[in-house]
Amino acid sequence: MSEQPSKTKLSERFPKLCYAWLPVLLVAIDRISKVWVNTVLKEKECIPVIGNAVTFRYIENSGAAWGIFNNSVDVLTIASVLVIVGILFILKRVPSDKRFRPLLLTLLLIISGAFGNLYDRLVYHHVKDFISFDVIHFPVFNIADIYVTCATFLLVILLLFVYKEEELSFLPFFGGDTQKQSKKSDGDTESK
Q: How many structural domains are present in the chain?
C-alpha cells in the first residue's frame, strides 16, 4: 500500500508564508504608481484630483518625509535596509496564531513601504513623491509612504492597547531573550 501525501494544507504548515504575497502586491502597486508618475506626471505641473485640495505633482525627494535629511540618500538607504532586516527578524519570531495577525500584517505594510522607497533610492537616488494635499500644505508623499505611516500608527495602537507586554515576550526588547536566560539561570541555581 502506498503512502498518501499529507493532507495538511500548506497554510497550516507554514501560516506566515501565506502572507508572502502581500508585500509583493503592495510593492507592485507602489512601483506601478511611480512608473505612471514618471511617464505621465513628470512633464506636467500638476493634475487636480479633488479640486485644488488634492493634486498629483511630481517631486524628486532626496530626503525623508517632510523634507528632513535632505540629500541624505546613503544614510536613508542604510536606514531602510536596517528597518527591513529588523522587521524580517521580528516576523520570524511572531507567533502564527490568529491573535498576532494584525501585528503580522502591520509589519508587512511597513516592510512593503520601506522596500518601495528603498528601490527608488537605489535605482534613482531619490524617491518619487506625487500626492499633495494643497489645502493644508502637507508634504508631498507617495504610496509607500502611506503604507509606512498607516502601519506605524497601527503598530503604536497594537503595542499600546491590544497586546500585553507578556504576549510580546517573543521579542528581545520585551524581555524575550532575557526571560529565557533568567529561567535557565534559575534552573542552574536550583540544581546545585
A: 1
